[in-house]
């Protein structure tokens, strides 16, 4: 179908709405705090394995459970049209409060079975934070939308990395890490209610119609952007989830694996902002193709540094951490620019849900590859096909007439 024109605002395009920078900063702060529960269990996985005598299989499910929960939450939200019927501010705050409580309940979990269930619940609720945040920031930005969405993804990246930093600092039992992450998510939800509001470019509210999900994804540009996103997501969360295990298994690895993991994941935060700025000027398809080529190259090369000097491993890891997530927001930006405005929330949530479903498979495959290949050195090679397929999808998108609506005609 042909997308409906974007809603007309009384604010001239040449005059950005007053206060949008402050709202963006407040939103990023809330996202940093809210997303800390995502990797809270992964950051203390060694302690949980020792406490509960967790098997390799159960440890994998503790990591995958959040992804699966996010998929269930995103699927439910997309099928009901919830992101297009409930104001994003209310949806984000309610989901953040629920995620904090689900994460806090880990302190009372008697074993891995109940912990996995709680991680699934956390993921379900996370689906009410991340997609609405992208929709909310888009109501403030038409010009500069790439850097704005990139800033939100950078905040998500930093929030995801923070539990590793808390754990690397030492001095806290695993319960302290879980408690700190839950408190941060509660504060993030409160911040959403106190400091955020929708901007002058609101997307129209939609009624619930099941056929709208197919309609939202039937747009060619949205479909190809989702294809690019799937290639990107095959690599991203598997790398984030298993980098600590990869670094800790390296011969001669000291006690700095948690700190280096934090630095590698956190390197993506400033990279997301820079990539958004470049995408607004060079084009989103050009930017995503270049970054996926770089990150795929790092996935292929990091095994070569396994027995090399630590500085080389750290350099490749930091480059990978920066490039593997920097393009993430641009796939969402394409949806907001080329999709039907009445279905933007549903399309974003469906795109993210499909992507996170794929991450669960990738997270499961990487340790299997490590076992099959005799160790962690070459395990990340299984991630290389993702960015390659993503590059093909974005190159196809760039050739479509719809690409003229992306990044003010830059594609």
Q: Which SSEs are present, and which pair or pack?
A:
Elements: H1 20-34, H2 40-43, H3 45-52, H4 56-80, H5 88-104, H6 112-126, H7 130-138, H8 145-169, H9 174-195, H10 211-217, H11 220-248, H12 257-266, H13 268-282, H14 284-301, H15 310-326, H16 328-338, H17 344-372, H18 385-398
Keywords: Membrane, Transmembrane, Transmembrane helix
Domain Major facilitator superfamily (MFS) profile: 221-411
Protein name: MFS transporter
CATH 2nd-level architecture = Up-down Bundle
Shape: globular
Order of helices and strands: HHHHHHHHHHHHHHHHHH
CATH class placement: Mainly Alpha
Average pLDDT number: 85
Number of strands: 0
User: Multimeric state of these chains?
Assistant: single chain
CATH superfamily: MFS general substrate transporter like domains
Distance between the termini: 20 Å
Transmembrane segments: 23-45, 57-79, 91-110, 116-134, 146-166, 172-196, 217-237, 257-279, 286-306, 312-335, 347-370, 376-395
Keywords: Membrane, Transmembrane, Transmembrane helix
GO molecular function: transmembrane transporter activity
InterPro entries: MFS, MFS_dom, MFS_trans_sf
Folded structure, characterized:
The chain has a single domain (20-196, 205-405), classed as MFS general substrate transporter like domains (Growth Hormone, Chain: A). The chain has 18 helices and no strands. It has helices at 20-34, 40-43, 45-52, 56-80, 88-104, 112-126, 130-138, 145-169, 174-195, 211-217, 220-248, 257-266, 268-282, 284-301, 310-326, 328-338, 344-372, 385-398. It is globular, with a radius of gyration of 20 Å.
């Amino acid at each position: 179908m042909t997308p409906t024109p974007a809603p007309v605002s009384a604010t001239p395009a040449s005059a950005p709405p007053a206060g949008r920078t402050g709202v963006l900063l407040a939103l990023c702060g809330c996202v940093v705090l809210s997303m800390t529960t995502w990797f809270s269990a992964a950051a203390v996985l060694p302690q949980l394995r020792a406490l509960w005598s967790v098997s390799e299989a159960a440890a994998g499910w503790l990591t995958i459970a959040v992804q699966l929960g996010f998929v269930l939450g995103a699927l439910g939200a997309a099928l009901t049209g919830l992101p297009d019927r409930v104001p994003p501010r209310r949806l984000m705050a309610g989901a953040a409060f629920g995620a904090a409580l689900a994460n806090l309940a880990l302190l009372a979990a008697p074993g891995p079975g109940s912990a996995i269930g709680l991680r699934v619940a956390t993921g379900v609720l996370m689906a009410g934070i991340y997609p609405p945040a992208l929709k909310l920031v888009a109501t403030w930005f038409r010009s500069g939308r790439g850097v704005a969405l990139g800033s939100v993804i950078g905040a998500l990246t930093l929030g995801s990395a923070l539990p590793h930093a808390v754990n690397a600092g030492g001095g806290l039992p695993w319960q302290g890490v879980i408690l700190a992450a839950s408190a941060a998510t509660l504060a993030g939800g409160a911040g959403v209610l106190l400091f955020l509001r929708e901007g002058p470019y609101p997307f129209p509210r939609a009624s619930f119609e099941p056929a709208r999900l197919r309609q939202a994804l039937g747009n060619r540009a949205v479909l190809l952007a989702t294809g690019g996103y799937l290639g990107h997501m095959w690599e991203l969360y598997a790398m984030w989830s298993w980098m600590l295990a990869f670094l800790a298994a390296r011969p001669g690895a000291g006690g700095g694996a948690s700190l280096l993991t934090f630095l590698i994941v956190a390197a993506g935060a400033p990279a997301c902002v820079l990539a958004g700025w470049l995408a607004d000027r060079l084009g989103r398809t050009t930017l995503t193709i270049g970054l996926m080529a770089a990150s795929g190259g790092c996935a292929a090369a990091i095994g070569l540094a396994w027995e090399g000097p630590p500085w080389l491993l750290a350099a490749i890891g930091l480059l990978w951490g920066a490039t593997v997530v920097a393009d993430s927001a641009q796939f969402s930006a394409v949806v907001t620019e080329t999709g039907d405005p009445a279905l933007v929330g549903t399309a974003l949530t469906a795109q993210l849900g499909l992507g996170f479903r794929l991450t669960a498979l990738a997270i499961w495959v990487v340790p299997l590859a490590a076992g099959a290949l005799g160790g962690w050195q070459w395990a990340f090679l299984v991630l290389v096909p993702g960015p390659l397929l993503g590059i093909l999808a974005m190159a196809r998108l760039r050739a479509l007439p719809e690409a003229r609506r992306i990044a003010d005609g830059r594609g």
